[in-house]
Amino acid sequence: MSIRDLASRLRAKAGQLPPGPVPLATLAEAHGGAWQASLLVLLAAPCLLPIPGVGSVLSVGLAVLGLLLCSAHRQDLPPRLGRLHLPHEGASRSLALLARFYDFIYRLTRPRMTTLAGPSTRWWLGPMTLLMAVLIFLPIPFGNVLPAVSLMLAGVALAAKDGLLMLVSLGVGAGALATSGLLLALGWQACMALVGLAA
């Protein structure tokens, strides 16, 4: 299924959801196997916004997703998570927003180097997601941006089977790790300097 087909599928499903609260399992099924890719996008995108606390909360969800990706044999949403519900309006809106996002992004992607964006990526995408979740959780000024962009690109790469985009995601993730490490080192030196002055 191409990313454009996925957008059409999500748009159709948004108008076909049953009334009342919608189980997460129903939303995962609507993606036709691409739920992990969409969840990466949905959880990472709000972390780009300068809203206090958003990164700390969503990083927990990203860490859980990272653990799921680390499981080589798990393709389906765990039953316990699948039984959780979202309000009907929120679920429908999420599917419609994802459809519009995929409609916008499909022109920039295409299936290529598919080995890098297929099932074999799970062994390193899981640890990468966990690491980016930790960086998002840490109280580093503007430290959410690069990790969130990296995970969004990874989600799009999975949905589009675009290995080149996955490589870009890895590059952005490496940049996020280097930048965060540098900022932490500078912050530590500043703290040590202040302690020295106080003494």
**What is the overall pLDDT average?**
84
Question: What's the gyration radius in Å?
Answer: 18 Å
Helix-residue proportion: 55-70%
Task: Give the terminus-to-terminus CA distance.
Answer: 64 Å
Shape: globular
Which structural class do you get from the secondary structure elements? Answer: mainly alpha
Strand order of the largest sheet: 1-2
Q: State the order of secondary-structure elements, H for helix, E for strand.
A: HEHHHHEHHHH
- Uncertain segments are none
**The biggest beta sheet, please?**
2 strands, antiparallel
**What is the helix tally?**
9
**How many separate structural domains?**
1
* Binned strand content: under 5%
Q: Based on DSSP secondary structure assignment, what is the total number of beta strands?
A: 2
Overview in brief:
It comes from Roseateles asaccharophilus. The chain has 199 residues and is mostly helical.
Fold and architecture overview:
- The chain is mainly alpha-helical and 199 residues long.
- The protein has one domain (3-198).
- It is built from nine helices and two strands, in the order H-E-H-H-H-H-E-H-H-H-H.
- Strands 1-2 form a two-stranded antiparallel sheet.
- Helix 3 packs antiparallel against helix 4, helix 3 (35-44) runs antiparallel to helix 8 (145-160) and helix 7 (122-137) runs antiparallel to helix 8.
Secondary structure blueprint with pairings:
Blueprint: H1 3-14, E1 22-23, H2 24-30, H3 35-44, H4 54-70, H5 79-82, E2 85-86, H6 88-105, H7 122-137, H8 145-160, H9 163-198
Antiparallel strand pairs: 1-2
Helix pairs in contact: 1-6, 3-4, 3-8, 4-7, 7-8, 7-9, 8-9
